[in-house]
Amino acid sequence: MVKHIWTVLCKESKIDPATNNLTLIEAYDNIQISLNTEDKGYRKGLPIAVPFALELVSLFFRDNKGEKEEITGVVAMLDPKGKKLGECPLKAQFRENDDRVRNITKFDGIALTISGTYLFQVFTHKKTNAAASELVTAIPINISVSANGEAL
User: Fold this and answer.
1) pLDDT in the model for residue 9
2) Are 73 and 80 in contact (CB under 8 A)?
3) What beta strand segments (E) does the chain contain?
4) Could you state, in chain order, the average pLDDT of each consecutive group of 10 residues for the chain (152 residues)?
5) 60 contacts: CB under 8 Å, gap ≥ 6
6) Please, what are the domains in the chain?
7) Cβ-count burial of 80 within 10 angstroms (0-12 exposed, 13-18 middle, 19+ buried)?
8) How far apart are CA 59 and CA 7, in angstroms?
9) What was the pLDDT predicted at 115?
10) Is 132 left (phi over 0), alpha (psi -120 to 50) or beta?
11) C-alpha 92: how far from its chain's center?
12) Bridge-based pairing state of the strands 133-147 and 30-35
């Protein structure tokens, strides 16, 4: 049985090729972003795409080795009001001898609406029914946003 162990939101992750150890760089729980939107036709309350590199790193574990096994799912991002701003696929593959596998989802930007606590939700699909998914974790991150000097 595959189990979700942990998920971290960070700026960057690095894997040492000699040891396969993972280094997480700048784990996020608070971010402050200032934007200049005067020339971009921005309207308050609507999502605005912000170029911002971050990674969502998850570790999964299974107790039965021996066969290849794949995990699929999605990562969804919710704004402080609970509105879904987007989602992306999640996929990780266990090889025959693996008992743990990492998934690294990279983001080049995020959509923001207001200041507050955003959630990155990780869902995995059940093997028997790929349409059914299970929420395995929700990572909160506090984001303070200001546009043109005004807090959103």
Assistant:
1) 96
2) no
3) 2-15, 22-27, 30-35, 48-62, 69-78, 84-94, 100-112, 116-125, 133-147, 150-151
4) 94 95 94 79 75 94 90 94 94 92 93 93 78 89 85 74
5) 2, 3, 4, 5, 71, 92, 94, 100, 101, 102, 103
6) 2-151 (2.60.40)
7) middle
8) 7
9) 92
10) beta
11) 14
12) parallel
Amino acid identity at 102 = R
Instruction: Note if the pTM is more than 0.70.
Output: yes
Query: pLDDT for 24-48, tens place per residue?
Result: 999 999 999 888 777 666 666 678 8
CA nearest neighbour of 145 among 121, 119, 106, 111: 111
Contact present, 9 and 106 (Cβ < 8 Å): no
